[in-house]
Specification:
The structure is a single chain. The protein is α/β, with parallel strands linked by helices and 244 residues long. It has a single domain, classed as NAD(P)-binding Rossmann-like Domain (Rossmann fold, 3-Layer(aba) Sandwich), CATH 3.40.50. 39% of the residues lie in helices and 16% in strands. It contains seven helices and nine strands. The protein has a seven-stranded parallel sheet, sandwiched between helices. The chain has a two-stranded parallel sheet with strand order 7-8. Bound molecules: NADP nicotinamide-adenine-dinucleotide phosphate (NAP). The site of NADP nicotinamide-adenine-dinucleotide phosphate (NAP) has 28 residues, from helix 1, helix 4 and helix 6.
Length: 244
Amino acid sequence: MDLQLSGTTALVTGAGSGIGRAVALALAAEGVRVVLLDRDGAALARTASGCPGALLLVADVTDEAQVASALARVDRLDAVVCCAGISGPVGAGIEDVSLAEWNAVLSVNVTGPFLVLRAALPLLRASATASVVLISSDSAFVASPGMAPYCASKAALVQFGRALSVDLADTGIRVNTVAPSVVDTPMSRGDLGDTALDEAAFPVQTADEVAAHVSYLLSPRSRAVNGTTLLSDFGYTARSGFPA
Ligand code: NAP
C-alpha cells in the first residue's frame, strides 16, 4: 500500500533512540522529510545518518524556551510524532517516589507533548493532511507494580490526545495515540535488565512494528481515524479474568 506520505514533512521527538529512531527511519524510507528532535545531539546524529535531508533539533521537550526556539527553525509540518518519554522509578512503591521523580515523569511524558504540539500547531494548521501521533503505552490501561508515575502519565497522554482531537476537529488535524506493550528498546532493557528481553516468556514487539502503526496513522489512508488509541498488546487486555 502506498501510504502517500512522500514529500511531506514530519517532526519526531525522542528521535535519538528506540521507537522515535525507528519512526524516523520508517518515515524517511517513505520519502518523508524528517525533523528530528531529542535532548541527545550525538544520538540524533546517528539517527540522521539514515534520514537524508533531516533537520536536527537538540532540545529538551520539558523546556518551553528550548521547544519554542527549536520549532522556530521549522517552516513546514504535516505531522508530529511525540515519542520522547521516560519511565521514571520502576519497582518503587508510591511512598518511595519523590516529588521530583513524580514531576519529572509527568513533565517529560505529558507536559512535553503539550509544549511541542502547542508550538507546532501554527505549522500543522497550514497542512491539508495534518496528523499527530502520541506514543502512550499499555500502561495507560493496565499497571505493573511499582510504576505508578509512568502509568498515570501514559493515561493522561491518552486523554490529552482524545481532547486534542476534539478541540482540533474543525481544523482537519487528526490526533491519534499508539499504546504498545513491551517494545525492545534501550528504555525497556534499562528497566527490565539488558538480557530480560532475550527469549522472553512474554511477547515483545519491535520498534519497527510500532513505527508501522505510526506510519499508517500519519497517512491519508487513515483519514477517517481520529481520536483513537491503537492498543498493540498482543490482545492481552481483551482477555477477561473469568476462568472459563
Ligand atoms: P528510549 O529508547 O529511551 O528513547 C527515548 C528517547 O527520548 C531518548 O533518546 C531520550 O533521551 C529522549 N528523551 C527523553 N526525555 C527527553 C526530553 N525531556 N527531551 C527530549 N528528548 C527526551 O525509549 P523508547 O522505549 O523508544 O520509548 C519511546 C516512547 O515509547 C516513550 O514515550 C515510552 O514511554 C513509550 N513506550 C515504550 C515502551 C517500551 O517497552 N520501550 C512501551 C510502550 C511505550 P535520553 O536517552 O537522554 O533519555
